[in-house]
């Protein structure tokens, strides 16, 4: 059971928009920055979003992050078949004094 | 170019030890915190341990606390994970990850190695 809760799967058609939620608590998301990662099967994770809503260089602006209270959201617009991957949220938990990840969400682009 | 290369994985019996290493290049190693993150076969990511840029701050997941020890050698641009009293449930691909910043309590791993596989089995 992950400290951060994500939906197991989401799907949408090419060109459409999808959002992936990440639910936490007052000891993690509410008081610490959230980051998001994309993992294509068989490869290492890649940082998509850091500090809730910042994109590293090279990440297209189709990817966005937001946060409100104890929940964070990853948005992806203009879906492409290449976006099919597992997506994870992550942050720090101040009660555990440890890093935590969500269980991951599998994105299918129909 | 940032490169992170893990090594040291392999097959170990329950109760035995392994030491993972991560050789880093392409950036100022001692400016950044580092993390070990693992992924069991077919499962999600699990944060294992982290160390601040100067080694002064260290943390562990409860699942490995007291058994694993993280360390770094800034002179050798290397990160380590000493894993003792290994359990079957430690079987996973272990990733070394460089943090965007200097401290582990705002984790932003921006570069990841390809991982080293640890299999614990009798």
Main sheet specs of chain B: 7 strands, mixed
- Count every helix of chain A, treating DSSP H or I runs of 4 or more residues as helices: 0
* Oligomer kind: heterodimer
Radius of gyration of chain A: 13 Å
Could you report the average pLDDT of chain B, rounded to the nearest whole number? 96
How would you state the average pLDDT of chain A, rounded?
A: 96
Outline the low-pLDDT stretches of chain A: none
Cα separation of the termini of chain B: 40 Å
- What series of H and E elements makes up the topology of chain A? EEEEEEEEE
Q: Tell how many strands the DSSP assignment of chain A holds.
A: 9
Class derived from helix and strand content of chain B? mainly beta
Topology record:
The complex is a heterodimer of chains A (110) and B (122).
Chain A: E1 9-12, E2 18-23, E3 35-39, E4 46-49, E5 63-68, E6 71-76, E7 85-93, E8 98-101, E9 105-109
Parallel strand pairs in A: 1-9
Antiparallel strand pairs in A: 2-6, 3-4, 3-7, 5-6, 7-8, 7-9
Chain B: E1 3-7, E2 10-12, E3 18-25, E4 34-39, E5 45-51, E6 58-60, E7 68-73, E8 78-83, E9 92-99, E10 109-112, E11 116-120
Parallel strand pairs in B: 2-11
Antiparallel strand pairs in B: 1-3, 3-8, 4-5, 4-9, 5-6, 7-8, 9-10, 9-11
Overview of this structure, please?
The complex is a heterodimer of chains A (110) and B (122). With 110 residues, chain A is an all-beta fold. Helices cover 0% and strands 45% of the residues of chain A. The radius of gyration of chain A is 13 Å and the shape is globular. The N and C termini of chain A lie far apart (29 Å). The model of chain A has no long low-confidence stretch (mean pLDDT 96). In chain B, strands 2, 4, 5, 6, 9, 10 and 11 form a 7-stranded mixed sheet that branches. Chain B has a 4-stranded antiparallel sheet with strand order 1-3-8-7, with no helix packed on it. Chain B is globular. With 122 residues, chain B is mostly beta strands. Chain A binds chain B through residues 2, 32-33, 35, 37, 39, 44-47, 50-51, 56, 86, 88, 90-92, 94, 96-104, and chain B through 35, 37, 44-47, 50, 59-62, 95, 100, 104-115.
């Amino acid at each position: 059971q992950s400290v951060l809760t994500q939906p197991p799967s989401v799907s949408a058609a090419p060109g459409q928009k999808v959002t992936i939620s990440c639910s936490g608590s007052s000891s993690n998301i509410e008081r610490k920055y959230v980051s998001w990662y994309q993992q294509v099967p068989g490869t290492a994770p890649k940082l998509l979003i850091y500090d809730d809503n910042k994109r590293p260089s090279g990440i297209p602006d189709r990817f966005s992050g937001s946060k409100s209270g104890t929940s964070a959201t990853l948005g992806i617009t203009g879906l492409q078949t290449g976006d099919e991957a597992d997506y994870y949220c992550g942050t720090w938990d101040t009660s555990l004094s440890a890093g935590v990840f969500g269980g991951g969400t599998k994105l299918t682009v129909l | 170019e940032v490169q992170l290369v893990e090594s040291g994985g392999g097959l170990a019996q329950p109760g035995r030890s392994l030491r993972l290493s991560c050789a880093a290049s392409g950036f100022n190693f001692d400016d950044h915190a580092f993390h070990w993150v693992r992924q069991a076969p077919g499962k999600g990511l699990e944060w294992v341990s982290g160390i601040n840029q100067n080694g002064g701050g260290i943390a562990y997941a409860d699942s490995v606390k007291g058994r694993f020890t993280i360390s770094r050698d800034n002179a050798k641009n290397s990160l380590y994970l000493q894993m003792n009293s290994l359990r079957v449930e430690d079987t996973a691909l272990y990733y070394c990850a460089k943090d965007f910043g200097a401290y582990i309590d705002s984790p932003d791993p921006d570069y990841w190695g390809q991982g080293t596989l640890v299999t614990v089995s009798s």
